[in-house]
Each structure stands twice: as C-alpha cells, then as structure tokens.
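Predict the 3D structure for this chain.
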Amino acid sequence: MPINDAADHSPGNSMHSLNDGTVESSRKHIIRSKKSVSFSTVQVRVHEFDLGDNPSCSSGPPLTLTWKYFLEFSSCIDKFEKGRELVGTGRKREEMVMSRYFREEIVRNRGYSRIEMNKVSIENKLLQHEQMERIRKFQRKQKVIENLKGLLRKFNLKNKLVKDYQ
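Done. Predicted structure below.
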C-alpha cells in the first residue's frame, strides 16, 4: 500500500502498512488512506400497507409497511436522479400525511372491519397516553434536579450529590 505523501518521512520515522488500510509510523502516528463509496444502480420497491401501531398517528387507524411489495424497478442512478430533477425533488411534509379517511379506506381494502380499526385506534391512544406520561415524569424529575442544583449553588455545596441522582 502506498504511503500518504503527507506522512512524516523524517529520519528515524519508519513506516509500515497495516491490514486495515492504514499506515503506522514508529512514532505511533496513524495515517488513514482515503476511501470512497459509489453507487451505480438504485432499486425501488413499493410496499403494501397494513394496520399498524404508529403512536404519531393522531386519529384513525395507524398504518405500517409490510414486507410484501407489489411494484419493483431498478434504474441507473444517474437516470433516476435526472428523473427526480424533472419531476421535482421530494414531497412537502403535508403531501406525505395521509388523511384518516384515506387510511381507513386502505385498511378496509385489506379486509379489516370497523371494530378491528377502532380497537387498534384505541390501543394507539393508550400508547400515546403512556408516552406522554413518561415525558411528564421525566420533566418533573428534571425540574427537581434543577431545583436541587440551585439549592446546592446557593449553599455552596458540591454538585456531586446531584450527579449521583441523574
């Protein structure tokens, strides 16, 4: 492996290659060789949706992607990127959000009943409630820690006690 030109070639500084693509000198300096990655093709798969458990879903049935896909194509990455430039890059956030009614239609087409959709929606609301409760507990704990830090500063005590409780 060639030694990097920026390496120190001063007397008494012998160099040798290591197995991981680096060069080490006798002075224990490690010189990394430049590495690069490139891609030639992009593969796109369009997956099916199913009833899910996404806690960020505010109303209606949450969706998840399945392992099954119904459309697949490969393209040269340069052609793919050119096509994206022609169509426009990406979508806006509001374009990526599915309405409750659209999600209900997808789930109905997958064979789920209204009762199953409601059950999953209720379970999702419970998950959201539990998540909010954990956040509130964490915020209360942080408030107590901040108050303790203030008291310790006020009474000129060591901060070690607060660190032990974090």
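Helices lie at 77-87, 93-96, 100-109, 114-154, 160-165.
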